[in-house]
Structures are given as structure tokens and as C-alpha cells.
Specification:
alpha/beta; two-stranded antiparallel sheet; Rossmann fold
Amino acid sequence: MILPTYERQAEFFDRARSKSLFERRWLDRLLAHAPQEGGRRRVLDLGCGSGRPMAQYLSDRRCAVTGVDGAAAMIALFSANLPRARAIHADMRGLDLGEEFDAVIAWDSFFHLSRDDQRAMFPVFARHLAPGGALLFTSGPEDSEVIGDVGGEPLYHASLAPEEYRSLLEAAGMEVLRYAPEDPDCDMHTVWLARKAG
């Protein structure tokens, strides 16, 4: 249900999406913790959308960005906005690219999945992270389901309880580095930063 909505609303979303880069502090924290062995950090952006402004910021910081989105219209925008980045049209659920990245991001995308699909994503995160790699994602602040809106269409969001996210991260071999529920310095986003054991 989410992906067809974003297919229809991709252009609207790209126009309406804030380009103020309020996420910058968290992106900088991600880069500070992500390993950098081969010169350029490899970043996997799950639910990348149009790539503006987050993937563009990372690309400007010499990251090799791979964007994945289940909506073909979003991947088309991502490719247009970041012509040097790799763009992959695929559903993040069950994704297996057969490679590892220094950082994985699921910002304002992962929380569109059902609770069970979210639980199943932690092995996906882990298998795409290199040892010592960093994970950045957003969730809700509590166990809940909420219906939002994009372009006048309903948009599903779900969240697990913080304690369950911590357990899922631990089970996937990751430690929580920072957790900020409804961060007032990040447009009230609830943000997680974790690192895979190295």
C-alpha cells in the first residue's frame, strides 16, 4: 500500500520535503562512527526517496552512496538528483545485495513497514553492514500505529517500543550508540544510531 502511494506522490513529496537539512547533526554523527577503510565511505540508503537533501549531503562528503527504494518514481528522481550515485529499484524487505557498507540509513522509511516487517529488517541491516559499520534509522517514540498524509493520501506509520528496538539491535549484533526520542534539534524525529560489532 505504501509503495503505490509513493509512486503517485513522488513529485509532490520531493517538492514538499524539507531541504533545510535538519538531519545534518545525525548524519555527521553517523560519519564519525562509520569506518573508512577504502578512502570513500560506502553508504546504503534504504528508502532513499529522491535523495534530497540527505543523500546529496553524504555524496558531497565523498561518500559512495547506493540508494534503494521500492517506488520506481522515487528511484527516477534519485538518479536525476544524484547521477553519480548507484540507484536500485527494490523493496528493502528481504533485501540481499551480497555486499557490505560502512553505513546504512533508513530515515523516515523503515517506519512505514508493519511491526513484523520491521522486526525482520534487523538481519537485513546486519548483513549489509561491514564490521564496525554504523546504522541510522528513525522510528516512533513508542509502540504505536499512526496514519499520516502525503499529497492528500493516507500514509501508514508503525513503531515498536524502544525496549524492543534495543533487543532487536542486540540480537543482530549491534550496540546502541545514541537514542533521541522526539529530538527537538531534529524536527522532533525519534532517532537511533547503532554500530555493528567489529
